[in-house]
Amino acid sequence: MATAWADDGEPKPITALFTVQRWTREEGLPQNSVKTICFGPDGLLWGAAGTQLWRFDGVRFAEGPAIDVPPSFSGSIFRVLFDGLGRLTVIRRGAVGLVHEGAWRKLPEWDYKRLRQLYDVVAASNRLVCLTDVAVGLSAGEGWRLAAVEPTVSGNVNWRKASCGPDGAVWIAAQKGLYRLVGERCVRVPVPLASDDLAYESVHVGASGDVWVYRHPGDFFRLSKGSWAALPPVPKLAQSRLGVTAMVERRPGELWAGGQHGLYRWDGASWNALYTGEGLYPPGINDLCVDARGRVWAGSEGGGLLCFRERVVDVVRIARGPAVQTFTALHDCGDGTLLVGIAGSGLWRGSLDKGFEPVASEPFSPQATVFSICDDESGGLWLGVLGHHLMRRAASGQTQVIYPGRRVPFMDAGVRALLMSRDGKLWVGTQRGVMVYAEPEGLDWPRHQIPNTVNALAEDADARVWAASESEGVLVFDGKALTWRGVNEGLPLPVPCVETVYVDREGRLL
C-alpha cells in the first residue's frame, strides 16, 4: 500500500548529522575522480580512478600493492568487485575483464555485438552478471550467455542497474520495468505503486533483504517483507531530475542515494541532503558502500573519496574498573589500542572491542590519577601524574621519574598537559605555567611567563606552541624570549577559562 507524506520544508543537511572526511590527490589518492569502490575480503576499501587500482586501509593508499594490473590491459577501470569466492575482478571499458586468483587471467571474450557498452556489472556467487543497453550477459568463467527476457517486451528493454542481495538473487532496473534474474531468465516484477511501471534507473538490495528502487525523475520505492511502500519526494528539489547513480542501505530502513546533483539520505521518516556546491563537487557521486562500522563511503567525480561518520557518542565503561569512572587522560597508541587514565585507578590499556586491562604503574600507586599522556619517537610514554610527578615509561616497561629537575619550582597538583613538539622538546603544562624538557638539559622552567594553570597544549605548522589557560585565555609561546603572550582578541570579556586548544590539518587553531 502506498503511503503519502507532505513535506515542503528544507531537508536537514547530512553534515548536521554526520561528519565528512575527504581524501584527494594531496592525501595520496591516485586521481580525484573515483569511479568504483568496494570492500574486499581483507577488510580494505578497494577502488579505481582512471587506469589505476588502489586499496585503502583508512590511513594510507597503495596502488595495487601486490596485485598490479598488467600494463598491457588497456582501458579505464569501470568496476572493481569480489565474487562469492573472494576473487578480485576488474572490468575495464573497451577491453576484456580480468580476475585475480594468485595471478591474473582474462575473463571470456565479450560478445561485442551485444555487450560492448557496459552499464553495470555485479557478482552473484561465482557468476558475473553484466548489463548493457540491449542485453544481460551471464558468465561463470566458461563464456558469456545472454539472459532471456520474460515476458517478452517489444524493442530494447534498456537495462540500467543491477544489485545482488544476501540471498544471491539479482534484481535489475530497466527503462521498461523492474526485473529479477531467475536462472538465466529476467522475470518482470510489477511495482503496484507506479502508474506506468517504467523509467527505472537504479535498484539496490540491502543486507536486510529489502529492495530499494529509484525511477525517473524522483520516485523512490521500497519492497520490504513482500509489501511495497513509496517514499516521499525529496523536498525543495532544485533539479527536475535527481539522476541517481548509486544507492546503499546503511541499516534497515535507511537509504543513501548519490547522483549527479547531490547525496540524499532517507532515515525512515525524512530526507537529508547534501547538494553539489555545498560540500560536493559537480557532477556528484559515482559509487557508494558501507563498512562494518556503519560508515558510508562515497566515490565522487572530481571530489575524491569521502567518508561519512555518524555524530554519535557512546558511553564507555571499563568492566574491571572502579564503580565511579572519571576519565582523566586518553591516548591513541596508533595500533588500535588506547591508553586511558581513571581518577584514583591508575593507567589502563585496551580497546573498545576487546576491553581494558590495568597497566603496571610502578613506581607510582595503582590508585594514582594520570592527568596526561604522550609518546616520543623511541616508543616511550610520558605520563603526568597527580602528586607532582612527571615520568617516562620506556617501551621495555621501565619507568623513570623526571620531576623534580633543575630550576623547577613546586608543581602543585601535577602535570595537566603534555606535548612533544617536532623539535623533540617535551612541553609540560602545570598549575603554575609551562616547563620544557630536552636532552641533555633536562627539565627547565622558563622564567618569563604568567604563572597560571595550563589545561592543554598544541603546536601549529609554524612550530608555535599554544596553551589553553585557566585564567588568561589563549596563550602563545615566543621561543626567542621564552615568554608567553595572550591572544584573546574576539573572546568574550572577562577572558574566560579555556579548557582546550587544537590545531587542525589546515593549521587552524580551534
Give a concise summary.
This protein is an all-beta fold and 510 residues long. Helix content is 0%, strand content 44%.
What can you see in these coordinates?
This protein has 510 residues and is an all-beta fold. The protein folds into 2 domains: 13-310, 7 Propeller (Methylamine Dehydrogenase, Chain H); 327-486, Methylamine Dehydrogenase, Chain H, CATH 2.130.10.10. Helix content is 0%, strand content 44%. The strands form 11 sheets. It has a 5-stranded mixed beta sheet with strand order 1-27-26-25-24, with no helix packed on it. It starts with 11 loop residues before the first strand and ends in a 24-residue tail after the last strand.
**What oligomeric state do these chains adopt?**
single chain
* Approximate strand percentage: 35-45%
- Report the count of strand segments: 46
The average pLDDT score comes to: 83
Whole-number count of domains: 2
Strand order, largest beta sheet: 1-27-26-25-24
In whole angstroms, the N-to-C terminal distance is: 51 Å
Q: Helical region count?
A: 0
The structural class is mainly beta
Which regions are unreliable across 5 or more consecutive residues at pLDDT < 50?
1-7
Provide the helix percentage.
under 10%
By CATH, the superfamily of the largest domain comes out as YVTN repeat-like/Quinoprotein amine dehydrogenase
